[in-house]
Amino acid sequence: MELTDQERSTRLKALQSLIDLMRPSVQADGGDLVLVRADVEAGVVEVQLGGACSSCAISTDTLQGGVTRILKDRLSWVTEVIGGLDENIDNAESVSLGVGGYVPRYRSL
Predict the structure, then answer these.
(1) Is 58 within the bounds of a domain?
(2) Domain span holding position 62
(3) Which of 5, 11, 13, 60 could disulfide-link 40, Cβ–Cβ 3.0 to 4.6 Å?
């Protein structure tokens, strides 16, 4: 089934609104969430994490457990979320942008 222009527009607006709703949470830790592209007919969405997320040990969890889960739960047409990290940012710069996720350090016995 092919979507009408109105349906495509409605889906894209809903997707962008949801991304905009999630961004402040990611930005609070010095990161960012950007919509790269969306095929609203196939249900494939590509996002990118940037800023402090580029050096964060749990950025994969943010993509899988956060962004992907929320998009699929709230937008029934989303079938796949492709996520990546901004690899253009220097690791030291990324670290300086925010606290990122807490990763415990274990002492050897």
Answers:
(1) yes
(2) 5-89
(3) 11
